[in-house]
């Protein structure tokens, strides 16, 4: 081969090597930039997932809190409904015997309790204990009055006796339970 051919071959090889080197450097920069973009997009995607998870948790907490507040409201209503001054007029019918009235009181308390039984899932154990105790105390009061009043007596006498015996203001389990529910709500449950 002649020197001219060698120079041309060398020039061709050198220019080819230079082109390959430039393409390699450009590709390396391009891939580096692509990698940075992919990392950025992955971080953005992770942030978006985190935001969505936080939003979902907040929404769940809001819903849960609303359900819990509703449960406390229902328990307060239950306690008000079984409180003797509210229970007696709702249940009493004219001409009813004391025994029939007692049975009706028990039925009303039981029905109210069973209707609200599922609310124990949403209130604290301490609140549920107060509610149960109040219900049991009202049932005990009904039974105490029944032991003092004859079964053939008029329901009016039973009601009067129940309100007379009643609960002492400071020992009223219904009021204690209501106060316990209020305190928990004030604390934010």
Which structural category fits the helices and strands? mainly alpha
Order of helices and strands: HHHHHH
Large-scale geometry: rod-shaped
Reported for the largest beta sheet, the result is: none
C-alpha termini separation: 96 Å
Number of strands: 0
**What's the helix count?**
6
Radius of gyration equals 40 Å
List low-pLDDT spans.
none
What do the pLDDT scores average to? 91
The share of residues in extended strands comes to under 5%
| Share of helix, binned | over 70%
Question: TL;DR?
Answer:
The protein is mainly alpha-helical and 189 residues long.
What does this structure look like?
The protein has 189 residues and is mostly helical. The protein has a domain at 65-187. Helix content is 83%, strand content 0%. It contains six helices and no strands. The protein starts with a helix and ends with a helix.
Please supply descriptive tags for the structure shown above.
189 residues; mainly alpha; 6 helices; rod-shaped
Map the helices and strands.
Elements: H1 3-82, H2 84-91, H3 98-116, H4 125-148, H5 155-165, H6 173-187
Helix pairs in contact: 1-3, 1-6, 3-4, 3-5, 4-5, 4-6
């Amino acid at each position: 081969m002649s020197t001219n051919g060698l120079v041309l071959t060398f020039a061709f090889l050198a220019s080819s090597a230079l082109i390959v080197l430039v393409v390699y450097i450009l590709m390396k920069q391009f891939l580096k930039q692509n990698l940075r973009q992919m990392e950025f997009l992955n971080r953005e995607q992770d942030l978006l997932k985190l935001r969505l998870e936080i939003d979902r948790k907040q929404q769940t907490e809001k819903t849960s809190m609303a359900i819990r507040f509703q449960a406390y409201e229902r328990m307060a209503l239950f306690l008000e409904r079984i409180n003797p001054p509210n229970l007696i007029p709702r249940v009493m019918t004219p001409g009813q015997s004391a025994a029939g009235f007692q049975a009706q009181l028990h039925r009303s308390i039981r029905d109210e309790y069973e209707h609200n039984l599922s609310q124990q899932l949403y209130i604290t154990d301490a609140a549920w204990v107060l509610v149960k105790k109040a219900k049991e105390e009202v049932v005990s009061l009904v039974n105490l009055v029944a032991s003092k009043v004859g079964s053939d007596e008029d329901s009016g006498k039973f009601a009067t006796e129940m309100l007379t015996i009643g609960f002492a203001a400071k020992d009223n389990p219904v009021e204690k339970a209501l106060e316990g529910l209020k305190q928990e709500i004030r604390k934010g449950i």
